């Protein structure tokens, strides 16, 4: 006979329900109808920073009344990597102005993170981005894609194979390996090359 603790269950987690928001379900169904399978939510593949500090906005060459968020990092495999770099200001997404705190208008009198606009798109759809770099505004169109990882995340593939030659071990790069070598923040600390 087993008790709950021996099965690894937490006795404090009884009668918990999880709710999936209606927009997520609608996105899944529409995506499945369009492609015959679920392709996922697209992403820009960026990390961004709020620009609420007026001194920072001035240092970045933003004029009075200009708003947006600063791009801190662009993933190498992201579709926007060809048109956007660190230090670029993302001012609008599909014509919707992004405020300095990274929000956009949502419902009457409410605001929501601008990433909500990205989540309303589907893989392969186009988006128009207004960018500011060195005080110059440009509009670019990008095709939105699901983020591709260069390194397999543990659990997606069977254990990586390896080869031992003359005492050297050759293996594929994996998230588990990088985590063991560089710690939890391996995506910041591991060398890019």
UniProtKB/TrEMBL annotation:
Keywords: Hydrolase, Protease, Serine protease
Boundaries of every Protease Do-like PDZ domain copy: 155-192
Keyword Membrane: no
Coiled coil spans: none
Biological process annotations from GO: proteolysis
One term of GO molecular function: serine-type endopeptidase activity
InterPro entries: DEGP_PDZ, DEGP_PDZ_sf, PDZ_sf
Highest taxon listed in the record's lineage: Eukaryota
Protein name: Protease Do-like
